[in-house]
Task: structure prediction
Amino acid sequence: MTDRPKRPGSGTAEAPSRLPALTGMRFVAAALVFFFHANYQGFFADPDSASVFESAVYQGGWTGVGFFFILSGFVLAWSARADDTAPAFLRRRFFKIYPLHLLTFVVAAVLLVQVAGMPFDGGTALLQVLLLQSWSPDIFVRGSFNGVAWSLSCELLFYALFPLLLRLISRIRPERLWAAAGAVVALVFAVPFLARFLPDQSPIPMVDISSAEMWFVYQFPATRLLDFVFGIILARIVAEGRRLPLGFGSALLLTVAAYVVAPYFPPSHHLVAVMLVPLGLLIAAAARADTEGRRTWFSDRGMVRLGEVSFALYLTHQLVLGYGHRLLGFGESWGTLRAVGTLALLFAATLLVSWLLFTLVERPVMRRFGTSRRRAVRVAQAMQAAGPVPVRIVGSAEPAEERRPSLV
Result:
């Protein structure tokens, strides 16, 4: 394998390889979530068209979020620095997610009160600002204001525990890594059975699942931590050069097949468990392809550029969909061609807003605050002492630190 990355948590000095395919995949995952939420806007007046659209995108939301959680663990472990400290790591993650979260929360709050005419709930707002909303079993708390931010509540737990988790997983012997991954998968499949013992079993019709199961299986930070741990273990498997059961093409086919059949499983399992292994194998296979210099469609420059705005796309898409629908005709549905055109228009608007936020907020904030000045000075001094070193970064002309496929 070329460009062998340092082992996550091993403390070796080798720098990790770039993983452009994983950055490109982020855009696909964010797009899946966009079209999943678009389905609930009811754009299609024709029942047959609406049914076809729902069948195509229904699994997309659950799949996209699961992909992000697994990828988050994988990428953070892959790019872990030998000289990193917990405060430095948390600083980078804070400035990666919080400025955009706070900005979209303020926009959502203003729109909720001024446009939708809803009352402002201070207690729920505080939970949203502090990213604690997913610890609440109340679906209205988790889904209020900018509803998609519930996943950041899970990520906050992931980041807090990552330094400890990385140390623990780094102690697993290489030949036992697949067994550890299998144990995590077994726990994920066991979670829905535990959810049945929770008291609130009132149904949520749109997903045919109880409120308690929806929370515990899909949105509870402690159970979604398993996805994150799975990603960390997979990063070690790839970094250690352990054999993968599937190549990239086969893993992609498995993921597509699982996406198609997942809705036929019980709801409490198709939300997370059914897609866990296919998504994990796809991420691992794509990373292996990147480290071996094998290009894929996802690693093309255009896909990488789109992947870079995926965080902003994720945080803004539901606001654009909901309030865009209000602007174009609140509660209205249209013929198939006009509905498709409306979808395309709102997706393009979301992309534009996402690009602006990435360019004007996310990237400048990370450049200014993502690394302490003291560390920046040390890095500059070390680079000056070492002299010019030619570095080739696939699909980018920007500094390597800005191009890590870090995500929420």
